[in-house]
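Page header: ASSEMBLY MODEL / two components / 678 residues total.
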Amino acid sequence: MNEVIEKARAIGADIETGLKRCAGKEDLYAMLIGTALKDRNFEVLKEKVLAKDVEGAFEAAHALKGVLSNLCLYPLADELDEVTEVLRAKELPDEKDMDAIERQREEYMKIL
Amino acid sequence: METELELFKDSKRTMLIVDDEEVNRLLLGNIFSNDYNILEAEDGEEAWSLIQENKGLLSIVLLDLMMPKMNGFDVIKHMQSDPATEQIPVIVLTSEKSMEVESLRLGAADFISKPYDMPEIIFARVDRTVRFFEHKQIISSVERDELTGLYTRRFFLKYCELIDRFHMESEMDGIVADIDQFGLLTEIYGNSVAEGVLKSLSDVLHIYAGQHGGIAGHGEGDVFYLYVTRSDDYEKLTKDINERLRADFPNANIHVRLGIFKRESKSVGLVDVFQYAKIAGDTIKDDYQTSLAIYDQQLRETTLFKQRLIHDINQALETEQFVVYYQPKYAIKGERPVLCGAEALVRWIHKDFGFLTPDKYISLFEQNGLIQLVDRFVWKKAAFQVKDWENRFGFTIPVSVNASRIDLFDPQLSDTLTELVESAGIEKKNLHVEITESAYSEEQETMINAVKKLRESGFILEMDDFGTGYSALNLLGLIPLDVLKLDMSFVGKMHLSPENEKIIEIIMNIASVLQVEVNAEGVETEEQLEKLKTMGCDMVQGFYFSRPVSAEDFEELIKKEQEAGK
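Prediction written out in full:
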């Protein structure tokens, strides 16, 4: 098994489902994990929340949620799901949630 | 088929995946990369420009909804604005349940929910959509005429039905547009110009239909249809047509005729609507001064009358409403005129209309081929009449019968006539066949061969109405003939000028060179008879001797002849 994927499993990723979505291709899955974690929308989300741009933040969070759930990168994906719903309700996520995202993303980044 | 080739470049279909997230594009791309060429776009604007560039090539678009620059819904709207992109199926990619139905409502063919579970199912779902749309396109390619993009006749009529169903209250008119002498136009200017004319005309009709709550269709060749809301003034339409054709084809004089049927009641079926419109249009065929004809009461009566005659013909033949009359022919070479034959002429005593003059039905039946039935009826009557007179008077009167153009196209003609004379028990030389000059104007070779065959088989051939058509002299050398029947108009005008007389003399001379007898028709006076005699005319028929009479009355002429001959 690919090392990145093994480590992702240790963090909480549902790699069985994730791999299935990549038609069983480990290399592809590993590569997509890398692409997802470097997604520009993490930065966009932070900026928009700081600027109190709820709509812009929602779009970024929504996009990230889609990507991360596609790859089953939990619990990061769940965290984004939560933030997306908060933003959808036209509210700004609190710092705690934003920190959680940042922390979990960093944890995933280490495996790359 | 061009479109088919375009669709399967490198034997793979082409798919466009539109998503601002690279991961999503790659995930989907991975599912389809074995079977599709994949194009990617990361926002709506890029998607729309790729769709326009590849519209002939794209089998499907997988479209994310939430994207920067232009969102997915706007991409769909853009696609729907162009017929060429409108037919490319779109599958929406969404993680929002509420968007699933919304996207279908906006025209998406299907949706795929994020996250992308079960790649096999996604593949199957997309593939099914692609095939469904391809199938639909094949159907719709028959719906539209390839050259003009208008509806084919069948679909045109179907859509007319829909208009009727959903716009019950609208007053609609049916219009048929025809181009005069379209065949000639094609011959003179070539196919591509002719097709250009069809396209230009279809453009004008398409625009007019769009502006007048209707639709346009293209039938066979140069026939076009319009079904539009009622207008009291179609001059504008004819003006538009003429201006466009003059602009596009300044050197060709193209005449488009419009036949219009104002549909007062929906009880007139759609097929009839366009048939009546066509009938109206045909009344101004080759009349370059007139471009518009409306199906009116008078035309309606004429049409109904014609339909009635067509309907009645079989019964009329069975119940002997058709009667054969005989006009005697006299040989005038000798001391006294001698009864030498007769021409069989058909008369229709209609059970309701009474005596119908031949001009009411002969050309009508010639157009639709029913004349063959009438001809055969006359041939049979005439052949048995010859036998009857032989039996009862010991006197043979050769009778000439008419063969129409369509008879000459019948490869069985010679056999049919041979069987007939055999069953009647008369000699072939006593049944003369009259053909008209105009029968040769088209397909000369077929005609000439048919005539040759008849003559070789032993029938006597007479050319009727000589001098009224064209190419007559030219044909004389090609067709084997026995008798030339000089049209009655020559005899009628003979006394008017020395030139007219001269023409008859010339025809007589030609006939004698070709060793063909001349029969002058329409002889009404003794003066005419004497003149023709001095010119060397062989025989005459006309009111001077007798009008066409019934077989019974003709027997008096036979008796008289027998008396005179004693």
